[in-house]
Design brief:
Blueprint lengths: L26 H10 L9 H9 L2 H11 L8 H12 L8 H7 L8 H11 L22 E3 L6 H5 L1 H13 L3 H10 L1 H5 L3 H4 L7 E3 L21 H11 L11 H12 L16
Antiparallel strand pairs: 1-2
Helix pairs in contact: 1-4, 3-4, 6-13
Length: 278
């Protein structure tokens, strides 16, 4: 229903910035945005949110316990803190690929998936952005890169108008209004990281998502335009090659790469459901 696909919260505790464009730097700040968003929870003001909370004694009691305050002393920032505390508990890291790479379980990956891992790290170039560390792997560099689809012509032709609008909102601190535009206006949403930095070089750039549970969580990319994992692999390979260094994989190699991506699914994850995508 919104202009962007809902990002995963798995391993969000390790994320230095939130949203596809990184416009919030803390989980507490991010938590309030969808609550006030007119296209999401739709509370017009923080006071309206608190009025609704007062109608739910059990929720008030939970927030009070989480923040160690009396029920009658709950403020909006306590709601933010309680939500952020829960989100920090959504940690994932027990996929077959993790056990193979970091748990010394040589049998955790099939031979096909091991070939896919070699491609992931090598010729396919995936690990340049979906990084693997020496001891752990978040499968993201937490940086911002151009999406696989070109920026819509409507955005390019109206860039000056859009930039002026975004700049004006940022200058007067109208964060809620800006968030509403990002969630409902496809042109504004397509500006990507620019919304956060106002740097023209960031137009059309989006945060690299993790690949955890990627095989079970279509559709893909920030706008959810790609329906199947095979299509997402093709789109990524096409987006990251140029005339001098094309990334060409055979049918078998693409199957190997997909097998490795399927090995990033963690059984029993606390939030196995809509998850990070390519």
């Amino acid at each position: 229903m919104l202009t962007r696909r809902t990002p995963s919260l798995l391993n969000v505790v390790y994320r230095p910035a939130l949203f596809w464009d990184g416009r919030e730097s803390t989980l507490e700040a991010q938590a309030l945005s969808p609550l006030l968003g007119p296209a999401e929870h739709g509370f017009v003001t923080p006071e309206a949110l608190m009025d609704a909370l007062r109608d739910h004694p059990s929720l008030r009691a939970s927030v009070a316990t989480a923040c160690d305050v009396k029920t009658g002393e709950i403020r909006v920032d306590h709601v933010q803190r309680a939500l952020a505390a829960y989100e920090r508990s959504l940690v994932s890291g027990n996929a077959p690929a993790d056990r193979y790479l970091y748990g010394q379980e040589n049998g955790a990956l099939s031979a096909q998936a091991q070939r896919g891992l070699a491609l992931f790290r090598g010729r396919a170039g995936c690990s340049a952005c979906h990084t693997l560390g020496d001891r752990t792997a978040l499968y993201t560099d937490n940086a911002y890169h151009p999406g696989p689809s070109p920026i819509p012509n409507s955005v390019l032709s109206r860039l000056q108008e859009l930039a002026s609008r975004v700049t004006e909102l940022r200058q007067r601190g109208a964060d809620a209004e800006l968030t509403a535009l990002v969630s409902q206006n496809t042109d504004i949403a397509a500006l990507g990281r620019y919304v956060a930095t106002l740097d023209p070089a960031d137009i059309g750039r989006f945060r690299t998502p993790s690949l955890r549970n990627v095989a079970v969580n279509a559709p893909y990319f920030h706008d959810g335009k790609v329906a199947a994992l095979d299509e997402a692999i093709d789109a990524e390979l096409y987006a990251r090659h140029d005339a001098r260094t094309p990334i060409v994989l055979t049918t078998n190699e693409r199957a190997d790469l997909k097998a490795f991506l399927e090995a990033l699914t963690s059984p029993g994850d606390p939030a196995l459901g809509p998850d990070d995508t390519m």
